[in-house]
Write a structure and sequence with these properties.
heterodimer; A: Rossmann fold; six-stranded mixed beta sheet; four-stranded antiparallel beta sheet; 10 strands; about 25% strand; B: about 230 residues; mainly alpha; 7 helices; elongated
Chain lengths: ~250, ~230
């Protein structure tokens, strides 16, 4: 397929005895916003980490822009990664750097000039409502602000494909709505492709072009927001309605 | 690990860590060096005076400090002070996904975190070793003059007579090698950290113990090796 940026084919991954991914095939298409949903611990983060080469799948193949990258070494991945962005669950801000240095970091690594870096950093911080935080350290920021700084660092390098691992989990509904709005705005502004992990159904319905539901190491649903709303797939119904009873059995 | 030194190293991180190693450890190195010199004079002084060998006290202290005590004690103190900090720091970066964030930004964690730290230690440890050696000589002189009633000139002349350039060189070489050891061991353990705060604690302990043991073993081997030149 032409408009597929990243494709994972039959991805398997186990940790010891525990089989986390049982042969997942997933496409990420250009300019779409794909939401990957599923209960906690179903392997969403593991799937993403396999797709961008932070982990190696036990079996299966990965294609980036129609080129197979499955067996790339770390060094080869370094050639692909400038096109990728990733927001980690905890933000993963460098805690010994200021907000400015954090956001400037990916640009600095690309060897951009200081004036250009300064301009871009100020611009993105302003877009994300973070003016005046340049000289603060990450531990001086609130959770929501830290998330936004991490988002700024991810997006400032203008990646082709951006992964967001739970950008709103643990935030209040208002901040969540704001970040969702921001994601939609950024998608329009940068024409980036997004793959967003979340288990917040409301948030997913607001931002998604397409939703994939993961459970037990398999994809149990793949469709648009409307399709999901209308679907009578028992997994979808249980997850969307947030019921304890249903096909998803989660050990508590 | 073979890749370790062929990778480009990072000037900014190198300077940051070089300064940090120096600033954070000068005081503790000063104290250990001074007291090592002082206790050496106390231990050797009376015996040497009994057999009328007062003229050797300074020289013996200088040799013991230069060849063994200054490099080994300094390295041990740095392993505890800086090596542990490096492991804990890199380890917590690992468990909070900061190391993965580096990788996603196409930055190699080894060349960005491990190499500059190791090189900083390799450059700084000889300096600290020499500094500790000097502090030990001064501490020793203080005890020799104040408590043994030795003339300061006797002490310094004795040093000049016995201490050779090659002793100082051995001291500095040991310092550099121990620096590399501490850097490699602490960075490696940091990057291998897994499993939350407990994991960081565990790795930090492992790192310090491993560094100290490898320092002692390397010291023995370097001393044997140095005999070739004596």
């Amino acid at each position: 397929m032409e408009n597929v940026i990243l494709r994972g084919e039959d991805i398997h991954k186990s940790f010891g005895q525990k089989e986390v991914l049982k042969g997942i095939t997933i496409d990420i298409r250009k300019s779409e916003l794909l939401v990957i949903m599923g209960p906690s611990g179903c392997g969403k983060s593991v799937l993403i980490k396999n797709l961008i080469g932070l982990m190696k799948p036990d079996r299966g193949r990965i294609f980036f822009e129609n080129e197979e990258v499955t067996n790339y070494t770390e060094k080869e991945w370094f050639k692909v990664r400038p096109k990728l962005g990733m927001l980690f669950q905890g933000g993963a801000l460098f805690d010994y750097m200021t907000v400015f240095e954090n956001v400037a970091f990916p640009l600095e690594r690309r060897g951009e000039r200081f004036n250009a870096i300064k301009e871009k950093v100020h611009w993105i911080l302003k877009k994300l409502g973070l003016e005046g935080t340049e000289n603060l350290m990450p531990n001086e920021l609130s959770g929501g602000m830290r998330r936004r700084v991490a988002l700024a660092r991810t997006l400032v390098a203008n990646p082709l494909l951006t992964f967001l691992d739970e950008p709103t989990t643990g935030l209040d509904p208002v901040t969540t709505a704001n970040i969702d709005k921001l994601i939609l705005f950024l998608k329009k502004e940068f024409d980036t492709t997004f793959a967003v992990i979340t288990h917040d159904v409301k948030s997913a319905f607001r931002i998604a072009d397409r939703i994939v539901l993961l459970f037990g190491g398999n994809i149990v649903f793949d469709g648009t927001v409307d399709e999901m709303k209308r679907s009578d797939n028992p997994y979808v119904r249980q997850f969307v309605e947030g019921k304890a009873e249903g096909p998803m059995k989660i050990e508590v | 690990m073979w890749d370790f030194f062929t990778l480009r190293w990072e000037y900014k991180e190198f300077w940051r860590n070089l300064i940090r190693v120096g600033v954070e450890s000068w005081l503790v190195v000063l104290i250990t060096g001074t007291f090592a010199g002082m206790v050496l004079v106390v231990q050797t002084g009376h015996e040497f005076q009994k057999v009328g060998a007062s003229g050797y006290i300074g020289g013996v202290v200088a040799l013991a400090l230069a060849r063994e005590l200054a490099p080994v004690l300094t390295a041990m103190v740095i392993a505890g002070r800086i090596g542990s900090a490096f492991t804990a720091e890199i380890g917590s970066m690992k468990i909070t996904e900061q190391v993965d964030a580096l990788r996603v930004m196409a930055v190699d964690p080894e060349s960005y975190l491990a190499v500059p730290r190791t090189l900083a230690l390799m450059f700084m440890l000889p300096i600290l070793t020499f500094y500790s050696f000097t502090a030990g000589l001064i501490g020793g002189a203080f005890v020799a003059v104040k408590s043994l009633g030795l003339e300061l000139v006797t002490y310094t002349e004795s040093i000049k007579r016995l201490l050779m350039q090659k002793d100082i060189i051995l001291s500095l070489v040991k310092g550099a090698v121990f620096g590399i050891l501490i850097g490699v061991v602490s960075s490696y353990n940091g990057l291998e950290t897994e499993g939350g705060a407990m994991g960081v604690g565990k790795r930090t302990t492992v790192s310090v113990v491993a560094a100290i043991i490898s320092i002692l073993v390397a010291n023995y081997l370097l001393t044997l090796f140095s005999l070739v030149f004596y």
